Structure formats: structure tokens, C-alpha cells
Amino acid sequence: MIAASSPMHAAAVLASFFQGEHNSLHPAGPFSSNIEWLYWVIFWIVFVAFVLTILAFARASAKTYSRAEEMLPIMKDEEGDRKTKWAVGTAITVTVLTLFAVLFMSVITGKKVEGMSSSNPVTIQITGHQWWWEVIYPNPQADQTVITANEIHIPVGKPVVILTSSADVIHSFWAPSVHGKRDLIPGYSSAFWIQVDQPGTYPGRCAEFCGLQHAHMGFSIIAEDEATFEAWEQQQLKPAPDPTDAEAQHGREVFLTHTCVMCHTIRGTDAGSRVGPDLTHLASRNMIAAETLPNTTGALAGWIVDPQRIKPGNKMTPNPLAPDDLNALVTYLRTLQ
Amino acid sequence: MAISEPIVLPHATDEVRLARTWAQPRGFWGWFMNVHHTAIGVRFMVTSFIFFLLGGVLAAMIRLQLSRPENHAIGPDLYNQIFTIHGSTMIFLFAVPMMFQGFGVYVVPLICGTRNIAFPRLNAFSYYIYVVGGLLLWVGLFLKTGADAGWFAYTPLSGPQFTPGKRSDFWAQMITFTEVSALGVAICLATTILRQRAPGMTLNRMPIILWEKLVLSFMVIFAMPAVMVVSSMLLMDRTINTQFFNPANGGDVLLYQHLFWFFGHPEVYIIFLPGAAIVSTLVPVFARRHIFGHLAIVTSVVATGFLGFGVWVHHMFATGIPQMSASFFTAATLMIVIPTAVQFYCWIATIWNGRLQMKLPMLWVFGFFFVFLIGGLSGVMLASVPVDWQVHDTFFVVAHFHYVLIGGALFPMFAGLYYWIPKITGRMMSDLLGKVHFWLFFIGFNMTFFTMHFLGLRGMPRRVYTYPPEMHWGGLNMLASVGALFMAAGLIVFIVNFFQSKATGTLAGPNPWAAGSLDWATSSPPPEYNFAELLTVNGREPLWDNAPNQPIVSGVRDDIPEVLITNSLDSEPQHKDEMPGASIWPFLTSITVSIAFIWSIFSPWGIAYGAIPVVITLIGWLWPRGHSPAPRQPALEGRWSK
Asked: What is the tens place of the pLDDT at every residue in B178-224?
């Protein structure tokens, strides 16, 4: 009993229950709040049902308990059954009515969280890949389309439509503080709504088993006020700036002459492959490798050299670069604001 | 035999002749020729219990890996194999073979009061084919080609593009093996129940456990083909390039899920109903009265059998099914709560108006009440579409289905084992060790799995091989892992108890629990002819209700293995039928069928060429042998009547 033997540890366990934004009982928007409300209503209903049933078992057992060692003779007198029949009949009726109530509330809440009407929502296309999320803000004009990965910026208090699809296997998009999950299924596209009312960063994870690195397929929803969101969007629309200092220029050369260019895009350069995440504004993201590592110089270098050690089985090959080349490459990538 | 107490017979020589007629061959080859249901039933139980322990070892490895964040004890590749084989083993190689085949094959003919199961050779064949299927999956794991796409093997992840090699093929063929086995046993059990019940055991008086096995057999017959079809389609996608589940060529990955869950949800009830039936059998015995609401319970079992086929989409709420369609399945799922609630109320009422004797099996029944109740009620929460969107595919669901499956099958299984092991081995189990086992297991179970509800609400998805420390899931996971140690300790106590009881336990005698069903009307362990005298029945609990001058059946020959056939509704004697005797052909056929199935993993020609030896062994199996030699003395018509 490691946990119980140390009160400190037990307290830490209890405290940990209330931490973190990745929690279906910490709603940050109308959808997750509606579901949270329904959760607690059904929870209290089944809690009462549990207590009543256990009490009935306890009463029945206490009433008729016998300590006899040998098996007792069979009871012939079943007079008590007539009264019990009424009790059982009542219990069944109450059960059926309660289940109807649960069904009713579930359908009503289901209607509420199914969608909302808005003439001018933000639309975001999410495509699941093994093991990262492609995030596109579609626009009829190609140069007005934002393409990024794993970090989804949305304006606070505004309805957002998420369009889903998958490039390979089934994934499931789930940010518990924002909404329930929705599967991304190859061959199918679907749409659902989200809305966040509190500014902040809300983590999410893939919830459908999708292979070796299912565990490291995170994303985050960053809710910010309208002005910040628009500024972010404008920044993302720009192509990557040309590097000014010599090291970053060397870094770009490294990028364009090594395997990086086989999979990644940096708009404004010749790199245009869509196999891996778009890196045009890599430095503007908080995390790399689908929320696996912080976006720091050291983590970036470690990831480039040996991604297979950090995320075994992922699709990026190791890059044994010379130290100078690696430094230059990381310096260049850090300029991609 | 030495430890049994033979029923005193008016004509002792009859019993000697019966023993000779029904004797199964001994020795090494004799083991493979045995077709008696008690032997095959015990084999199903022992084999599936071994698979249960193996699956438990994998569970312990899962708990070891998840006990700390960023743990590197097990890598993702091995971890995915471990949880896939754990789930597949527990469902396909343990729960169904133990609860349906094991208990069913052993107990049903005894409760029917007949001398062997119908189609005993098919029954023996079903056992061997199940063993091969189980070995196939585990040999795959040890050869590092363990299935790794989850016990549900969703496409396209399990398809040729994303799981090259033979991993998913081993899994898909294991399904075929185990489901052929379950189908074979379903046919044997349904036939036994419908045609071999003792005279007087009308449908109205049929014990609940027989009703449940009958409903279950039909559920198996309707549900298992769906999963065999879907696993065969997957295999064909992988071996002969069909495109059933390839969206790029017009295939449909959701079709796989529909077919899989059309089997998968009835499967849950195929696992739970035997547990409920054990509870309905034990509660009256230990409350010392007839069960309250026999008709209501039977109706509930039948209703569950039907409703179980109408809820499969609740595994797919997050796929984007429209709200109204999904709500239909919410309604169906909530509706299936009703028959289960009815059974709970009837059990409470039985105890309420009875005299509760808290013997060891009943302790486990109370464990079932507590654990299954929690699982059933968290099921009510999951039935709601919006709530399911949050907790689906998280540890909340892991907690839920361990509460329903361990609660609904494992606790009743231990109740059933403590109850019937005295019948099977002839010796009682230790009461003290049984209680230690119970409390270790009960506390450990709740520690491990109740914790997981919180993990799920805190957002921990299923099937992750590790998790980052920032998520603060470490403490709860450690608690869950410690609970697993308690469960393991409990299981060790059970195994010790079993072997100690087998060696030195008190003799049980024919009916240690003073129970009312016919399985207790013969010695413990039963002889190979089951009953020296074929009994008739005068009530739902024959040994409690029979008249002092209850007639027994006469005219069934004892020099050939003959059983009495009765009609389905009123169980009036109709005719007699000679049972097939011991034979090596079921074993040989299982070997040739296995060769064809396994060969087909590696080449589609395996089915074509592999069919040739199958046909040869089937010819051997079905070769007519004429009628039994004429009796050496006249049939004993009327001699046993009192």
C-alpha cells in the first residue's frame, strides 16, 4: 500500500485529481458545460440507485442471516412473497421511469451539444496523421489559407466548426475541457462545433488507438481574444522570412539539401512536401512532435538528430548531421516566427 | 471413484454393466478419444483458467508499465502486443470458453438428468479446435508476431497497409478457431436442453441455468457468424487483396465496426448471462427457498437475449452518427437495464424471504452484487450519447467494462467454482483460504479499477503505452498497479486452495449444499454414466420437490450407451437414442482443420489443399459402423421400476 502508507503521497494523489486542464469535469465552453451538467445529473441518479440497492441487500441479509453450520431445511412457507411482489413491482416501475428520465435528459442535452447556428463561424479542417494533427483554416483564396500543425488557435466566445478527416488510420479528436470526442475516419468527413469562453490553452489527445505512437499524439486548443487571434492569423499567412544572419542562411541550406525537404513545407522556400507538418511558422508553436517536447533549441536539436529515441516508430528518420550543420539548422528553424 | 458414495441400488450389477458400457478409454490415446461431457467440460475449465492466468500475467505487465509516467520498462511495440493479447485472451480464450463452454458442458447434462451431452464427438472436437486457436495466438506472441491492433482490430489499422507481416492474420484466425468451437458447443447444448431433459422437466419447470444456456446458445449461433465473417473479410483483405475495408478503393472502415460490434455486444451478454445464471442457481440454495420470480427471471434472460442484439452502435457514438440515430441505441441500451434490474430485485426478494447461509460460494455472489452493480450503473452513464463522447475510449470505459466483466463473469465464476468443485473433484475447498482469496481479490480489484474512473474523467485515453508527468496521472496509476498485486495474491491463494482440497479436502458427498437440482442427485464426482437411475422431475428444484414415491425411468438399456429423448415442451419421453462412443476422429479432424486454417494465413491455397485431409478425416469420423451388436442378454425392460 504505497499510496496509503504515506499520507503525503495520498494527499498528492487527491490534489492531483483537481489539477490540469485536460479534464472533462473542467468545462471551458458551452458544449463541455452541458455535458458536465448531464454527467452530474446521471451520476447522482445512479449514485442514489446504488445506495438503495445496497441497502436492500444489507437489510435482506441482516433480516434472514443464519449462522447454522449445516444446510438448513428448505422453507415451504412463502407467505411473505405476496408483500414482496408489490415491493418488487414498485421498484421495477421506478426503475423504468428513471430510465425514461435519463433518456429524456440525454436526448435534450444531445440536441444542445450537437451544434449551434451561426452565420459566420471560424472553420478549421483537422486531418489526423500517424501521429500528428494537420490544421488548416480553409479559404477560397489559396494564399489566404493558414496551414499549421498540432496547435489550434481560436477566438474566444465565437463558434468554430471543425471539419474532420484522416490521412491514414482512425484517430479521435478530443479536448475534454472543450467538447467530447469525434473520430477522424478515413473515407469519411464530418463536422462538429466547438466554442471556448475562457481564454487559455486547452490540451487534447488522440483517443482512438492508432498504432505505435498513439500515446504521443497531443494537440492544444489556444483560445485568445479576437484581436490576438486575427494578428496570429495574419502572421501565419506570411511566407517564411529570408534569414538575415549567415548561420541561419547556412541552416536554410542544410534544410533544403537534406532529407527534411522530402516531407516538410516551408513556404517561401523550395520545400513544399505535405507528408509531415508544415514548418513555415514552427517557432511560433509552444511544443513540437505533437505536444511531446517543448519547442526549445535543445529539444529541437535532440528531436532532429534522433526522433526514433523520443517517439519510437514515428515516420521521421534520424538525421546524423555535423554539429555545425545541426546548430545552423536549429538557428534557422528558430527564426520561423 | 474411490471417494464417491455410490447411490444404493436395488440391483448392484446394473451399475457395473453401466460403468462398462459408458467407460471412456484410458491411457495416452484414450485421453484424445474421450467424449464424455464431464471430462470435456473440465478440460474447457482448466484450459481456459490457464489462459486466464496467462492473460493476467499480461495485465500485470500493463500495470507495471503504467505505474509511473514516462516509464520505459516496455516499449510501444511490445506494449501494443501485450494489451491486444490480454484483451483477446480474456474475451475469446477465457471468458466465453469458461462461462459458456466450461460450465455449460459440465453442468447442463447433469442438470438435465441425462447421461451425456448431445453430439458428444462434436463437443470433443470443439474443445481441441479451441485449444489450437489459443495456442496460435500465444505462439504468435512468443515469435514476436503478436497481434497488435487491439482486441477489436479496427481497420484500416489492422489492414495490410498499416500492419504488414502476419500479426493481424494470427488474430483473425484465432477468432475463427474459437468461434467454431463456441458454435459447436452451442449446438450441443441447445440440443441437449431441448431433447434430453428428464421426464417431467417441462419448460415451465426448467431451471433458470438451463434457460440461460438455451438463450445463450441461440445468441452464439446468431452473433458468432458476424465476427467470423468480419475476421475472414479482414484476412481476405490481407491475403488475397480484397478491398472490403480499404477506403481508397471504395471499401468502408465503418462496415468493419458495425459487423464487429454486432457480434461484440451480444458477446458481452454471452459472458454476463452465464454469471447471472450461476447467481440465480446459487441464491435459492443459500437462501434455502425457491427463487422468487422464476418467470420474471426467465423472461428477463430471454429479453436480454433479444435486446443484446439491438445496442451495438453504442460502441460507435463518437464516429459521427447523427444524434437521432444514436439516441435509438441509447434507448435500447437503457432498456436492457430493465431485465438486469428485474433479476437484481428478484435476488434481493429471494434473500429477503429466505434464510441466508453465507457459505463461501454465496460470499462470491455478494461480491458479484456489489461489483456488477457499480459496472451496470456506470453503464447507464455511458448509454447517454453526450456523456459517452467524453468518456468513450478513456480509462473510465476500462473501469466500466472490468466492473461488468469481472463483476459479471469472474465473481460468479469463482462462486460457481467453489460451488461445483466439490462435485467435480469430490472434495470440499477450504473455507478460510476461500475467504482470504475473496478479500484479497475484492479489495485489489476495487483499488485497481475504481481508480480508473477518475483517470478517465481526468482525460487519460485507453491503449497508451505511457503518459507525460504533466498530466498528473501518476499517483492514481500507481494506486491501480498496487491493487493488481492484491488480485495476483488472491489468485495464488485460490490455486493453493484447489490443490490442497484435491489432495486432502473433506469428502463432499453427493449433495454438500443440500441443493435442489439434478446435478446433486449423483455421486461426487459423477460416474461416466452420470446417473445409475434416470430420475423424473416433479418441480423446479427436483430434489426438493419430488414426491417420496417419485417414479424413475425404466427401459433404457444399460448394455449400449443409450439416452432417453423427450420432447421440447413437456419433456414427455419420445424415444431412445444411442450415443456415439469414444473416438479418435474428432481429435484428428481438429488437427486437419487446424492445418487448413493456419495454412490459409500464409497462402490462400491453404484452404484449397488443406480441405483434402479435412475431408479424409471427416469420412473417417462419419464412416457408418452399423448398429451396436445385439445385447448379450435381453434388454432390462421394466426391471428398474419401483
From this structure: 999 999 999 999 999 999 999 999 999 999 999 999 999 999 999 99
pLDDT at B1: 35
Question: What is the tally of structural domains in chain B?
Answer: 1
Q: Measure the CA–CA gap between B257 and B485, rounded to whole angstroms.
A: 35
Q: Which among A13, A68, A88 has the least Cβ separation from residue B293?
A: A88
Determine the residue of chain B that is closest to A54 in CA distance. B370
Confidence of residue B642 (pLDDT cuts 50, 70, 90): very low
Whether B80 sits inside 8 A of A35 (CB atoms) is no
Residue range A246-334 in CATH 3.40.50.170: no
Is pLDDT of B640 > 80? no
Mutate to test the interface with B, among A179, A189, A208, A217 (most CBs of B within 10 A): A208
d(CA A294, CA A285): 9
Find the mean pLDDT for residues B600-627. 90
Query: Is the overall model pTM greater than 0.90, yes or no?
Result: yes
Q: Which residues of A touch B80 (CB under 8 A)?
A: 211-212
Q: Mutating which of B395, B464, B517, B541 best tests the A interface, going by the most A Cβ atoms within 10 A?
A: B464
Confidence category of residue A23, pLDDT binned at 50, 70, 90: confident
* Cell matching residue B254: 465503418
Q: What is the domain extent for residue B174?
A: 12-622
Contacts of B73 in chain A (CB under 8 A): none
A78 pLDDT higher than 90: no
Residues of chain A positioned with their CB less than 8 A from the CB of B295: none
- Average pLDDT value over all residues in chain A: 91
Taking CA atoms, what residue in A is nearest to B467? A215
Nearest chain A Cα distance for residue B624, angstroms: 50
DSSP string, B293-340: THHHHHHHHHHHHHHGGG-GGGG-GGG---HHHHHHHHHHHHHTHHHH
Whether the CB-CB separation of A132 and A277 falls below 8 Å is answered with: yes
Locate the domains of chain A by residue range. Answer: 246-334
Is B2 within the bounds of a domain?
A: no
Instruction: Judge: A212–B76 Cβ closer than 8 Å, yes or no.
Output: yes
Beta carbons within 8 Å of A4's beta carbon, 6+ residues apart: A10
Within a domain: residue B239? Answer: yes
Chain A residue with CA closest to B511: the answer is: A71
Residue B1 lies in a domain: no
* B147 touches A at CB < 8 Å: no
User: What mean pLDDT is reported for chain B?
Assistant: 92
Q: Residue A272: is its pLDDT beyond 70? A: yes
Establish if B629 belongs to a structural domain: no
Query: Which residue has 492508432 as its cell numbers?
Result: A210
Report how far residue A288's alpha carbon sits from residue A258's, in angstroms, rounded to the nearest whole number. 20
Which of A124, A130, A125, A317 lies closest to A217 in space, CA to CA? Answer: A130
This model of the complex carries an ipTM of 0.93
Which phi and psi (to 5°) does residue B29 adopt? Answer: -70, -30
B153–chain A Cβ distance below 8 A for any pair:
no
Element (H, E) at A202: strand A200-206
Q: Would you call A50 and B373 a contact, using CB atoms and an 8 Å cutoff?
A: yes
Per-residue confidence band for A21, with pLDDT thresholds at 50, 70 and 90 = low
- 3-state DSSP of B156-178: CCCCCCCCCCCHHHHHHHHHHHH
Q: Name the strand (E) or helix (H) holding A50.
A: helix A30-64
B245 grid coordinates: 475495408
Per CB-CB distance under 8 Å, the chain B contacts of A169 are 154, 156-157, 162
